[in-house]
Write a structure and sequence with these properties.
single chain; 441 residues; mainly beta; Jelly Rolls; Beta-galactosidase, Chain A, domain 5; 2 domains; 2 helices; globular
């Protein structure tokens, strides 16, 4: 039985905080810091576009920001907010542009800058695109302790003050965040299943967000280290799960089963033998049916994807797993039977980079690891296994597919993987991983 909990019924929250985010009242509510109206002008795009902010630093520093928005006077300290702006990038020739937020303490001193979008000379030009993020408690951008006010800012910087670029801004919005969970659901669901503990996260539209094995954290639980499926679109960037900096993934339906029984209103904590999360979602013209099954000390993940029309992409990542940065070694068997192995050396490189039957990681300090078996992945998507070796952050696993390709319309692509954590001594972990991989089916 599949219970649909339609997220479209969730309230969108309070009215927008900014009084003139569409610039229809000119520069009311906005100030130059630094600059003047020779470098930042209100332009008229006609009846469809309306007025917008046209920014051209012309070889100088330039900043346009909101008046200070005070906590307790329009902004609530205990509330999360969605922040977004429509931005047209006609090119950054020199320096960098930033759509960001500044936080200030009670004395008016800046305590933190949080950048939401920051193109540079290597960035792709684009037409009007909505860039968005969140701020406040429970988001990836919590306000620093002692924050008394904030401002939203559009600015250019170059060390010699030689900023050359052309960027347009419109429809700047700051409003109370839409809840990502269906009505009556908790913000998270933690499940103890045998030797595993997993957490499902609402902010990423209900994906995995923790893998613990026998009390040891193997896969990170830190918002920003995302799990699940994400799509990189040409000229836009990443969209999907916790990647909300450009657009949100559209969550259509989600359901939970615990020990074989559908649960309409889940609890926030379970101790069980089996838990199943199923979700339907949409990213632009790509639809996804995702199932995660945790049972028997294994995590089975399946994604069925279909394009409603031909959809060009830069790439798609399936089965993202941010393994902890203390992980020391990897081992894999390719689809042609070749063994690939080595150490993580903090070089920011991609390890393996071939299609694999299975791959494994091992965390020397804890004597634990995990095998990931690829049970289904269509060859025509030109997929490979990647482990991104980022020091002090993670050893992140991906199935990278559809590099610089177009996803054909109305054809289903199915991907399936099984993750099996294990414990083994240093001198025997590879044999233990191979033995577990042989049980995948």
């Amino acid at each position: 039985m599949f219970i649909l909990l339609l997220v479209t019924n969730v309230s969108w929250g309070a009215e927008m905080v900014l009084p003139n985010g569409d610039f229809e009242k000119g520069m009311t509510g906005w100030i130059f810091a630094p600059g003047d109206d020779t470098k930042a002008k209100i332009a008229d795009g006609g009846p469809l576009r309306g007025k917008y902010l046209d920014l051209d630093p012309s070889g100088d520093l330039l900043g346009v920001q909101t008046d200070r928005l005070e906590i307790g006077k329009g902004l609530k300290a205990d509330t999360a907010y969605d922040v977004s702006a429509l931005i047209k990038n006609e090119g950054v020739e020199n320096g960098v542009f930033a759509f960001s937020m500044y936080c200030y303490d009670a004395a008016g001193k800046s305590s933190r800058q949080i950048a939401f979008y920051s193109p540079n000379p290597k960035s792709v030009k684009h037409q009007w695109v909505k860039k968005q993020s969140q701020l406040g408690p429970g988001t990836a951008n919590p306000l620093p302790e002692g924050t008394a006010s904030i401002c939203l800012r559009f600015s250019f910087y170059e060390k010699d003050k030689d900023c050359r670029a052309r960027v347009m801004v419109d429809d700047v919005e700051l409003k109370e965040a839409k809840s990502a969970e269906p009505g009556g659901w908790p913000q998270e669901i933690v499940a103890d299943v045998g030797d595993l503990q997993v957490r499902f996260e609402s902010r990423s539209f209900w994906t995995l967000y923790r893998i613990d094995y026998r009390g040891t954290r193997l896969c990170k639980d830190l918002f920003g280290a995302h799990y699940g499926t994400v799509v990189q679109f040409p000229g836009i960037g990443f969209i999907g799960t916790g990647h909300t900096e450009n657009e949100n993934e559209e969550l259509i339906a989600v359901s939970i089963e615990v020990d074989g029984k559908p649960v309409e209103m889940p609890a926030s904590r379970y101790a069980c033998q089996k838990i199943v999360l199923t979700r339907e979602s949409k990213i632009h013209d790509l639809t996804f049916h995702t199932t995660v099954i945790v049972a028997d000390n294994r995590i089975e993940e399946e994604v069925k994807m279909k394009a409603l029309k031909e959809t060009p992409v830069d790439l798609i990542y399936f089965f993202m797993h941010p393994w902890v940065p203390t992980v020391t070694e990897f081992l894999a068997e390719t689809t042609s039977g070749e063994k690939v192995e080595g150490a993580f050396v903090n070089d920011k490189g991609m390890k393996v980079s071939k299609p694999t039957k299975w791959s494994a990681i091992y965390d020397g300090p804890t004597g634990k690891g995990a095998v990931t078996c690829n049970l289904k992945a269509p060859d025509e998507s030109k997929w490979v296994t990647w482990y991104w070796d980022i020091p002090d952050v993670y050893r992140k696993h991906y199935i990278r597919a559809f590099p610089k390709m177009t996803v054909p319309a109305n054809k289903e692509f199915e991907y399936k993987a099984v993750v099996i954590p294990f414990a083994a001594p240093q001198d025997n972990w590879k044999a233990a991983a191979e033995k577990l991989a042989a049980t995948c089916k």
